[in-house]
Amino acid sequence: MATVVLVGTLDTKGVEYEYVKKCIQEAGCAVILVDAGILGEPPIRPDISAGDVIKLLNKDMADIRFSEEGSDTRSVAIETMSEGLKVCLKKLINEGKCDAVFGMGGSGGTNLISSAMRSLPLGVPKLLLSTMMSGDVKPYIHGKDITMMYSVTDIAGLNRFSRLILANAAHAIAGMALNYKKALDHSAGVKKPLIAMTMFGVTTPGVLHIRDLLEDKGFETIVFHATGAGGMAMESMIREKLIDGVIDYTTTEICDYELGGVFSAGEDRLTAAGEMGIPQVVVPGALECLNFNGIDHLPNEFKTPERKLIIHNSTVCAVKASKNELIRLGEVFTQKVNAAKGLTEIALPLDGLDKYEEGPWKDQETDQALFDSIMRHSNVPVNKIKGTINTPSFAKAVADIFLRLWNQEHNK
Length: 412
Description:
42% of the residues lie in helices and 17% in strands. By secondary structure, it is of the alpha/beta class. The strands form 3 sheets. Strands 7-6-8-9-13-14 form a 6-stranded parallel beta sheet, sandwiched between helices. A 5-stranded parallel beta sheet has the order 2-1-3-4-5, with helices on both faces. Strands 10-12-11 form a 3-stranded antiparallel beta sheet. It is elongated, with a radius of gyration of 24 Å.
């Protein structure tokens, strides 16, 4: 029988968890109820108590109890309990007692549970019913495969509407658990080297061409959308040793991190492949794109005549980085690449970094400033290639560079 692990703060949401447990059991799954409450004893009996969770860290509940709401001790208690949950969930997975994980909560519970969920392996079903779902969910998701569902109302009691929402969530996680082994079977196949690539809408043609070329050579490809979470996911999977090589074709997330855009993947972007020593080709694709959530959210400092602006769609607008900003970005880009332990090369598309530069942003002077900065600071080979990033000849050249590095690494 498939098993769903229910994780939650039972001291404040015991009634709701008891209802969800019943729904999941009626759907045909076994349930392990884990208490993560930090305030007091729960109104229902868990299978694994909060005290049991904390003991996995060699601590006692008395160590994390607090009395003042809003105090620093509350934050520490949440973080400590979440660390305990990570150990608890890993133990259950190793024992074969977890086919899916479900949690629900407000801001505190969402922080606590999502942090633990992010520690779980890719593919293990994870569903989080949350009051925070209607806002920015990046702090909870990062680059992990967590499914979030909006609770609409606060999770504070049962009524005819909340029972419907909770039952839908319960049946969703039950379905995931019941079909988890089938999903694993579907994902299996002939194991091929897995090559990660990064893509943006404005670099898509080039990436798709490389994908076809690599797959013809016996590789499997995995493409990440470079919108912040995508870059985080790729870096995480590389560190988990799930990726065998990288063609980092679209590095725009570095621009957003450095200049304050919304598609930042954090300071660790463009570091994992280098740290793990796997072959990589790096391209400054869309590195000049600074992204914001639509024209209405564009900061005032970018609303100037000299700034080139493109409204990509109703929720994304892009500002072109200035010449001086690109010189700085070139230095940051190469500092990260220079730190690589494995075989690494840079490829420069001399006629344009993306579709924007094939049209309204075409400006050889600013591009050259970026290229000069990269060549000046780079300690790894830099390949200067004619064509835009989406030109088939450029894409093929990048694929050829990667294949050369791959063969060099695997024919030592």
